[in-house]
Amino acid sequence: MATPWRHTQPRTSTGRHIAAAAPEHVPAIARLVNEHARRGDLLPRSAQSIADSLADWLVGLRDGQVVACGSLFHYNGTLAEVRSLAVADVVKGQGWGSDIVHGLLDLAVQRSVPTVFTLTRAVAFFARLGFEVSDREQFPLKVWKDCQLCPLQDNCDETAMVLRWSPASQSWGRPH
Question: CB-based burial of residue 21 (10 Å sphere; 0-12 exposed, 13-18 middle, 19+ buried)?
């Protein structure tokens, strides 16, 4: 079983930093996300849509260059989605994706959003972070908003996963 994530301060190390996205990061985020979209891993995002939701994006910076990104899309005051999680091939397997997700969970706590979900093919990755497989029908706003635009809509191979914040333990834990 995964260790619950506790709210922490931003992580940095020499040459490595997870930060709120800034306007100058938009072109690099769009390139990274759309590279993964061309592979069929993510839905595409325009630079304008990224810029319009910039406060919801985090970036992983290695020596000042964007090598990872992800966003926290809010559906309402109690539900948000981790989406557009992308890591450059040159740094895959080095913990950047986990750091971005942990940062997005911290952002959810700051915004008092108690439930975070994702639709993913990377079930093992999200399970290691404490997410649990869920029923996609629990997230009709997602299905209505994004799934109707997806080319795989009728043959979706993504798995819904969810994680809930526990105010009592100040940690993310498995859903009840």
Answer: buried
